């Protein structure tokens, strides 16, 4: 029997990898967002119960390789995966796409957490948040002088001083410029996710001379092998499957 892969996903890169996996492999989603309907592999939704629960799952299901293609800011998931793989003596590989780098003309204000975000956007009136769901937990904190535009994957009610847009990349420069203009955005708040799907907002912010409040990436655990793109990951996983992880 071919050794099994557990793909930890939820990103566009992960979905591209999942579409190449056969029925014996497992694609794991935390439960947020839409579950793909066009995959040959099994799809598992929900947590594992921490590193101990994941280690039990790996042993029970005969998993030989865990490939971590979660978001660069999903630090807890990655830490749990690394610990579980070590305990279960299972290979742990990860996709670690390169972060964005500031370009000439960029005005990035680096912060480390939500408190830093709040302080950095205080002088502005109409921020655009592209942090996922995190700003939704702070809707009752919108100052009277501000109006927030929040873009995330899932629909959510806003209120008089906060508009929530459910949208999924890739985003185009034309679309981003239209949004910035229509919503009168004066500062962009972003995670340094890397990749091309959501990079257009940075180019438009640069062209419009808008500052970007950028959240630093959290430290992530090391992996036995790190890949920089979905294409590299697909080739490496396919090669490993063909050799049944015996190399």
UniProtKB/TrEMBL annotation:
The keyword Transcription does not apply. Coiled coil: none annotated. InterPro entries: Precorrin-6x_reduct. Keywords: Cobalamin biosynthesis, Oxidoreductase. Pathway: Cofactor biosynthesis; adenosylcobalamin biosynthesis. GO terms for biological process: cobalamin biosynthetic process. One of its GO terms (molecular function) is precorrin-6A reductase activity. This is Precorrin-6A/cobalt-precorrin-6A reductase.
């Amino acid at each position: 029997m071919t050794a099994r892969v557990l793909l930890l996903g939820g990103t566009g890169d992960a979905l591209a990898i999942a579409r190449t996996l056969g029925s014996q492999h497992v694609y794991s989603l935390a439960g947020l967002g839409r579950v793909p309907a066009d995959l040959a592999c099994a799809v598992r939704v929900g947590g594992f119960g921490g590193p101990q629960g994941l280690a039990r799952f790996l042993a029970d299901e005969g998993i030989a390789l865990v490939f971590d293609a979660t978001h660069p800011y999903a630090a807890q998931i990655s830490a749990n995966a690394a610990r579980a793989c070590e305990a279960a003596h299972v290979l742990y590989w990860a996709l670690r796409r390169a972060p964005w780098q500031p370009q000439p003309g960029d005005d990035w204000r680096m912060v480390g957490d939500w408190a830093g975000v709040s302080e950095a956007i205080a002088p502005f009136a109409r921020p655009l948040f592209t942090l996922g769901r995190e700003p939704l937990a702070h809707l009752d904190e919108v100052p009277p002088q501000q109006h927030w535009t929040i873009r995330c994957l899932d629909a959510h009610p806003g209120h008089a001083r906060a508009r929530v847009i459910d949208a999924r990349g890739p985003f185009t420069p034309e679309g981003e410029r239209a949004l910035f203009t229509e919503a009168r955005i004066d500062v962009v708040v972003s995670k340094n996710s890397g990749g091309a799907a959501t990079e257009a907002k940075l180019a438009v912010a640069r062209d419009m001379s808008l500052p970007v409040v950028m959240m630093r990436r959290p430290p992530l655990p090391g992996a036995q092998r790190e890949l920089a793109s979905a294409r590299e990951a697909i080739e490496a996983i396919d090669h490993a499957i063909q050799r049944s992880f015996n190399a």
